[in-house]
Amino acid sequence: MTKQRVLVAYGTKHGATAGIAEEIGRVLDEEGFATEVVPAAEVTTVADFDAVVLGSALYMNHWQHDALRCAHRHADELARRPVWLFSSGPVDSSAEQHEIPPVAQVAEELEHLHARGHVTFGGSVTAETPGFVARSMVRHGKGGDFRSPEHIRRWAQEIGAELRADEAGPAKD
Ligand SMILES: Cc1cc2nc3c(=O)[nH]c(=O)nc-3n(C[C@H](O)[C@H](O)[C@H](O)COP(=O)(O)O)c2cc1C
């Protein structure tokens, strides 16, 4: 049987979200899917994929603009296939402790795209993150890398399980 093709696209300013997308891609590869991980700005079509995972870093409660543009540019095609969205993320352990609902803008996209699910992962701001706000956060002890590989892997495995169930078709009794 040919492998289902899954696109994992991401919006990032400073690279932390690329790491999350890579991890999702790795898990889906391990689970037997043919996975491509690409920056959202480079997505020219989603028509070649059976399913799409689209995510972004949050800045002031909004997705990074490449990810949002990607969602809008491919809205029709996305709405016709299984789609999951993710956001990152709080620079503390809150995302691991409880489910964090999507911000208003992302809740709208979830509805438009008929997405199957959304998760918020922890984010990362470290001494290497450029920008005044990031520097100030780190200086005041509010930085750190809160991306949890376990959380990311668990979510990606759930996606894999759902896609496999789709492929198997409705259970017969
Ligand atoms: C200026 C600034 C604003 C941020 N705003 C939010 C926010 O509104 N909500 C949130 O959960 N995280 C926020 N964060 C944390 C980032 O989303 C987090 O650091 C993320 O991992 C960055 O991803 P990137 O490196 O892929 O750009 C903010 C970080 C900075 C530096």
From TrEMBL:
What InterPro entries would the database entry show? Flavodoxin/NO_synth, Flavodoxin_dom, Flavoprotein-like_sf, Protoporphyrinogen_IX_DH
- Write one Pfam family the protein is assigned to: Flavodoxin_5
User: Where is the secretion signal located?
Assistant: none
- Flavodoxin-like domain: which residues? 6-160
Among Gene3D superfamilies, the record links this protein to: 3.40.50.360
What is the protein name given in its UniProt record? Answer: Flavodoxin domain-containing protein
Q: Where does this protein come from, organism-wise?
A: Kitasatospora arboriphila
Q: What is the lineage of its organism?
A: Bacteria, Bacillati, Actinomycetota, Actinomycetes, Kitasatosporales
